[in-house]
């Protein structure tokens, strides 16, 4: 379980500043991206008192306009960012109290996986996380094999990452997170830059993983085909939770929010 309690995050400035409260409330203002910047001296409030509980095994979709705070939120789940106010607990323990536990339980896949690879070949990259846990070699090999199989990359461990397609690289990034055997897999815009077959392949892997019991949190602008597999949709607007509904209620709840609609809801 990931539990977010009253999370507020500000960038820059350092001071809480005079938060202008409702001044930034509408999502439709600033249609170029709905920046959350609210004019507090030298900084911007990216999240405002966000609370959220993500049970184990849940498939959660987080949507929202550019700048609505999605990345800022999920980066707190394993301590990559620390909140100014509030806290995040993973299985009841505040993330900051045990970063290793949080990073073992919550696997994170970033928007640009190619910036995050640490090795030249597939298997060596996927092994990196378990190696850092200090696991024995045979356990590392077992995890790498399982993780690659889970993303349909079995037997391709010796291939060079820079020769893979975008979709394959995304799947290697997912395998790298899976090798930590996390209870939640969090993916920030996993479909960006992928063509349709690659997008479908990544999504299919995520659905399978979720059926196998892994919690999946997908941050995306693009709700096509995703919502029907999700347990829940959260939409952030201006650093706040604007929508928190089961997918069946999503179309009504989306209103004028700037996300790409599911086609089949
Ligand atoms: N490193 C940073 N320094 C200063 N401000 C930042 C930084 N990162 C994000 N912000 C600001 O915080 C707000 C939330 O940004 P965030 O990246 O979390 O949004 P997002 O919903 O992930 O957007 P996108 O859809 O573009 O990825 C925005 O106003 C953004 O400009
Ligand atoms: Mg983002």
From TrEMBL:
Segments of skewed composition (Low complexity): 17-39
Superkingdom of the source species: Archaea
Location relative to the cell: Cell membrane
Membrane topology, record value: Peripheral membrane protein
Keyword terms of this UniProt record: ATP-binding, Membrane, Nucleotide-binding, Transport
GO cellular component, one term: ATP-binding cassette (ABC) transporter complex
SUPFAM superfamilies given in the database record: P-loop containing nucleoside triphosphate hydrolases
Keyword ATP-binding: yes
InterPro entries recorded: AAA+_ATPase, ABC_transporter-like_ATP-bd, ABC_transpr_CbiO/EcfA_su, ECF_ABC_transporter_ATP-bd, P-loop_NTPase
GO MF entries: ATP binding; ATP hydrolysis activity; ATPase-coupled transmembrane transporter activity
Regions annotated as coiled coil: none
SMART domains: AAA
Keyword Zinc-finger in annotation: no
Main localization, broad class: membrane
Function: Probably part of an ABC transporter complex. Responsible for energy coupling to the transport system.
The name this protein goes by in its record: ATP-binding cassette domain-containing protein
